[in-house]
């Protein structure tokens, strides 16, 4: 049996990658969405074990020490990381795995897993991104400013990614993502 494809998707905060991903994963049961661990506090409506595994800093550090993380990064004062075991198991079972992670983590995955497909979602412009973050209303002004600065930094890393998707229109971006997934399924990885 062929192994699944490891996908990594990154985007500046507020780019709508979550919505793009939901549209795609809802209709493709062969994609396993990797649930990350984080030390960030849950936002309203977020569910432990579904959106993230919300854990304490000490527990996160123990996972790192135990070599249990495929990658991790510190982002805006919190740890975020991908538990390695479920990713390996899913890929070995033939399922694709989607990691929704920031740039530093994506670069670590690229180093460790050169076969991974890296996708970067960008907003039509930084002004539009600011408007979307304000509209979401889940962060304080200080955090929004911090995230916008981070977004500008992250956009510079786009050149390291295999695919760029512009999220101007949700449906079009979702179609683009489906095309990328199909292209990666058809890539000749030397298995035949
Ligand atoms: P948020 O706090 O908005 O949920 O996430 C902040 C950033 O952390 C986003 O860019 C998100 O993609 C990223 N992130 C989520 N999980 C992980 C992870 O497991 N590893 C890394 N490196 N970044 C993550």
Short description:
This protein has helices spanning 17-25, 57-65, 84-92, 103-112, 126-136, 141-155, 170-186; strands at residues 6-10, 31-33, 36-38, 52-54, 69-75, 78-83, 96-100, 117-122, 163-166. With 192 residues, the chain is of the alpha/beta class.
Radius of gyration: 16 Å
Strand content: 15-25%
Q: Tell me the series of helices and strands, N- to C-terminal.
A: EHEEEHEEHEHEHHEH
- Cα distance spanning the termini: 11 Å
Chain-averaged pLDDT: 92
Structural class by sheet pairing and helices: alpha/beta
Stretches where pLDDT falls below 50 for ≥5 residues? none
**Main sheet specs:** 5 strands, parallel
Fraction of residues in H or I helices: 40-55%
List all distinct small molecules, including ions and cofactors, that are bound in this structure. Answer: guanosine-5'-monophosphate
* Strand order, sheet with most strands: 2-7-1-8-9
How many strand elements?
9
Shape type:
globular
Total number of helices: 7
